[in-house]
Design a protein that fits this description.
214 residues; alpha/beta; Rossmann fold; binds cytidine-5'-diphosphate
């Protein structure tokens, strides 16, 4: 079984996908974590997003692996580091680069060849799992998405002004939706769910009912 979950930043994709993966006993792949890990790698090496030669040269040196839902890059668990504001504020600039997208999309397609998966991202229903059995596109108002992000950040020990979060989310969505290569977009055959006024359990119930009905 292949399930695709796409949507803009903070629409609840990863929370929902993780729980559905557990309920259905299938593998969860957080493709955003892969773009974040690659961003961390290049930022740590001081390679800016416009240095395409260095990016091309370094890409084969980045090994990515999920172990117990934790993102490992070159044998190091980077799950916490990839969620820092430093990475969040830069990821969309690296994620719009063609060679990075093609490299990660190939890795994602390869993972899905061997097993049942639920993948979340921006281009899963449109490109990576074009033939998915089920496609969902989660949306929510930007205020609600910023509120959720604030709760996550507070839990991780960061303080942040909600207006800055709204700005960051809108800026990231604009870059993700306007890039040439596999932009953030609802697949024609995806089911859109507005999660603004729904609890996590309500979203899961909706999705699982659709899956059960086949
Ligand atoms: O968790 P959140 O919704 O904030 O973002 P994420 O899923 O961790 O993705 C981080 C960034 O990676 C996005 O803003 C996109 O720039 C990029 N991304 C992408 O381009 N394609 C994907 N399939 C997944 C993420």
């Amino acid at each position: 079984m292949k399930i695709a979950i796409d949507g803009p930043a903070g629409s609840g994709k990863s929370t929902i996908a993780k729980l559905i993966a557990k309920n259905l006993n299938i593998t969860y792949i957080d493709t955003g974590a892969m773009y974040r890990a690659v961003t961390l790698y290049f930022m740590d090496k001081n390679i800016p997003a416009n240095d395409l030669d260095s990016i091309k040269h370094e890409l084969p040196n980045i090994e990515l692996e999920f172990i117990d839902n934790q993102m490992h890059m070159n044998q190091k668990n980077v799950s916490l580091e990839i969620r820092t504001p430093r990475v969040t504020n830069n990821v969309s600039n690296y994620a719009k680069i063609d060679i990075i997208r093609e490299d990660l999309q190939n890795k994602q397609k390869f993972i899905a060849l061997k097993q049942s998966v639920i993948m979340d991202g921006r281009d899963i229903g449109t490109v990576v799992l074009k033939d998915a059995d089920f496609k969902f596109f989660l949306v929510a108002t930007v205020l609600e998405r910023a509120r959720r992000r604030l709760i996550d950040l507070n839990r991780e020990g960061y303080q942040m002004d909600i207006n800055l979060l709204i700005e960051e989310i809108e800026r990231r969505d604009a870059i993700d939706a306007s890039r040439d290569h596999s932009p953030l977009k609802k697949a024609d055959d995806a089911i859109e769910i507005d999660t603004s006024k729904l609890t996590i359990d309500e979203v899961i119930e909706k999705i699982e009912n659709i899956i059960k009905r086949g």
